[in-house]
Amino acid sequence: MDVHLYFSLIPEALIASNLPPEQFGQYYATGTGYKSKGQCLFFEVDPEFRSDYFDIPTAIERCVPTPDGTPKHSVYVSVYRVLEHLPLSAIGKLYLTTAYGHTLELARGTLPAEKEDCLHLYQDLVPVNSLVVSNLDPVGFYNNVTVNPSKFIRFPGLFFVELELGALARDPENGPANDLPYSFIHHLREALMVLKPGAGDSLAAKETKLVHRVHSMEFPYRMVKKGFYIGNGADLAFYPMISHQELRDKYNSWWRSANI
For residue 171, how far is the Cα from the chain centroid? Predict the structure, then answer.
């Protein structure tokens, strides 16, 4: 039976499994008894990838079906500092699984070239799970905490997603927020106003502002703005999110499951 390698993002882990992506996503999100539920995201990793940091051969040896032929669901290779030891060349497709076990496949795309003159909301998932607002575009935000940090905080790599801000992206003080599903709107407005150009004090020079130091790793898939970003050192890759219209037309089961 085939052995797959997966890089889980909720939580960070490198896992070997006999299950193909859709079955692994269902197992990882709902468990074997279908009693627990939780959103999960994971990458498929090149099964030929090897590293001195990970003992992948031993994990593969242990990843064998049971005597009755049941596939081995998971063998954990590592749960610590996985991202920084995974080159982007070994990372394949990204899978988004809903809390009900429906999985959507995303392919790697081209980094957006056009910069928007607006504020941004970023959810960091690996190696930290924080919520940050910034006036930097995604590439600038990534560089600001990795290859060219402006503060003492620095990460070897980062996986993050940009979330929708609606009207708050250009008018954080007065923009309507009725369509935003966030429970911390007042705090979010205050953080965004610190970044607003011409705010009238020294704080206006801030490029980023922490909204939550430790934030829930789950987020509404429908609020993904453009897509997902994963970087290791100077390498940064982008996985564009499928449009809402296409999700409704072609992936309706996943879309309904994601919005229950």
Answer: 26
Task: Say if residues 211 and 182 touch (Cβ distance below 8 Å).
Answer: no
pLDDT at 180: 95
Q: And the tokens for 190?
A: 């205050």
Q: Among 137, 142, 140, 136, which residue's Cα sits nearest to residue 159? A: 142
pLDDT of the residue at 202: 47
pLDDT of residue 205: 57
What are the residues facing 12 on neighbouring strands?
Answer: 9
**Beta sheet of 131-134, edge-to-edge order:** 208-212, 131-134, 120-126, 157-163, 224-232, 235-240
Element (H, E) at 253: helix 252-258
What phi-psi label fits residue 200: left (phi over 0), alpha (psi between -120 and 50 degrees) or beta? Answer: left
Q: Is the pTM of this model over 0.90?
A: yes
